[in-house]
Design a protein that fits this description.
With about 180 residues, the protein is of the alpha+beta class. Helix content is about 50%, strand content about 15%. The chain is built from 8 helices and 4 strands; from the N terminus they run ααββαααααββα. It is globular.
């Protein structure tokens, strides 16, 4: 026990001699950042700093990304929304279905597998039908139809699908936010 107390004391002493970290306070209800998340710009919160410079009031939400996914296609995208505008849209009970429909389409494991396969370059019905867990042809058609109705997929020609370019980064943001 004495050895453990000595180690804790050494750690506390080392931590108190470190300079403060340049970071915004984290709300107590927010999960900690994933340990494997990359640090950009020496850990400085440059995207957050830029957002705060441009927005007042109750704030805003910004998500952005750049990726080369599926057959070398490059996607660069950013979107921001004022918190008041977003909460105003969510307060409209008649229109809230568009939010829940888009999220519900992602909540089914087979649909998420289909989306990830399309993101990785499989686009035809035959390629999607070969995905483990996609179910029967009828079930696959149902999943594709749900994803298309929610805006996560679109048909480029008969039996061929793609994720609309403006949905690639939002999909990745939702998946990143859902990680534990």
């Amino acid at each position: 026990m004495a050895e453990l107390e000595r180690r804790v004391e050494a750690l506390e002493s080392a931590a108190s001699s470190q300079p403060p970290v340049d970071a915004a306070p984290v709300p107590t209800h927010a999960p900690p950042a994933a340990p494997e998340a990359p640090v950009f710009d020496g850990g400085r919160l440059w995207a957050l700093d830029g957002l705060k410079e441009r927005v007042g009031g109750r704030g805003a939400v910004l998500f952005t990304g750049a990726t080369s996914a599926g057959q070398g296609t490059t996607y660069e995208w950013q979107f921001g929304v004022l918190v008041d505008d977003l909460l105003g849209e969510l307060a409209d009970v008649a229109d809230i279905g568009r939010f829940t429909d888009a999220l519900a389409a992602l909540a089914q494991p087979a649909r998420l597998r289909v989306l990830l396969a399309v993101l990785e370059g499989r686009h035809t019905s035959a390629e999607l039908g070969a995905i483990e867990g996609s179910g029967t042809t009828g079930q696959l058609y149902h999943h594709v139809r749900q994803l298309t109705a929610a805006g996560w997929l679109r048909s480029t020609e008969r039996g061929r699908y793609e994720i609309p370019p403006e949905r690639v980064v939002p999909l990745l943001v939702i998946l990143a936010a859902a990680r534990r």
